[in-house]
Design a protein that fits this description.
The chain is mainly α and about 270 residues long. It contains 13 helices and no strands. It has one domain. About 60% of the residues lie in helices and about 0% in strands.
Length: about 270
């Protein structure tokens, strides 16, 4: 918990400073108003999740390992790996595979929240932000967070993922969400290189387009490979960056999106 919080704070501060130094886009809504609301939602979600699930996904990983639940806790899996690897190489391989499978699970979960109407009502709280910056990466409705936690638990238990896989994935997910939602100017040449491995701010910003076709693309949070493999990758927005409008149409007249407004938004 302390490690995750420390990494979160370090990345948050780092990205916030870079947004001041090299911003990509000008703000539609005054930054102060948005930050108060978005950070308040983060605090509310953190407190609620800690009260409801104090051990989080890591706790389920510990239980699954102790009871030998899931694919990676079965003896035949280790037998398969020992034919090709040995010692710590097996552990490292399983950890890496675990992180990638969790990321694939989050990719499909993201698609689910876009395609199922009742789930979209929750997820549109995230898309209703009229600007994107480091605070947008953690702006989710509490019910979506609870459902997401349940889905991650299912993946962890079914696969029997090791604790270290879950911890590493959670740290990477938090950090990458802040990075790819940030309002930071990334040089085009660097962006093209980074996109072959990870989701960049310019790539993910297209996903927040008001145009439904663009919003239904670039679902990845960490690895960009899933969008390429499953055909949901969009290289550039229609008309280019200058024509890209961020947000959800039903929220355009709500420039002052308070904490209460975000909590009630799915039910409007």
């Amino acid at each position: 918990m302390e490690t995750r919080l420390g990494v979160f704070c370090a990345i948050f501060v780092g990205m916030a400073v870079m947004e001041l130094l090299i911003p990509k886009r000008s703000n539609v809504v005054p930054k102060g108003k948005r930050w108060v609301s978005n950070i308040a939602l983060v605090v509310l979600n953190t407190v609620c999740l800690y009260v409801l699930f104090p051990a989080g996904s890591v706790g389920f990983s510990v239980v699954a390992s102790g009871k030998e639940w899931g694919l990676f806790n079965q003896a035949f899996i280790f037998s398969f790996f020992t034919e090709y690897l040995s010692g710590r190489s097996i552990e490292l391989t399983i950890i890496v595979i675990g992180v990638m499978l969790l990321d694939l699970g989050i990719y499909w979960q993201h698609i689910l929240f876009h395609k199922v109407p009742i789930l979209w009502r929750l997820h549109r709280v995230h898309h209703s932000d009229l600007d994107l910056d480091v605070t947008s990466g953690t702006r989710f409705h509490i019910i979506e967070m609870i459902l997401s936690m349940g889905m991650k638990w299912g993946i962890v238990v079914c696969l029997g993922l090791p604790v270290l896989s879950v911890v590493i994935f959670e740290i990477i997910l938090n950090g990458m969400a802040m990075f790819n939602h940030s309002n930071v100017r990334v040089f085009p040449a660097l962006d093209r290189v980074l996109r072959w491995g990870v989701v960049t701010p310019d790539m993910h910003r297209i996903h927040h387009s008001v145009k439904r076709k663009e919003a239904n693309s670039n679902y990845g949070f960490n690895l960009s490979i899933w969008d390429r493999v499953f055909g949901s990758y969009t290289t550039v927005a229609e008309g280019g960056e200058s024509q890209l409008v961020v947000g959800e149409r039903s929220s355009f007249d709500k420039k002052n999106q308070s904490l209460l407004w975000m909590v009630l938004y799915p039910f409007r």
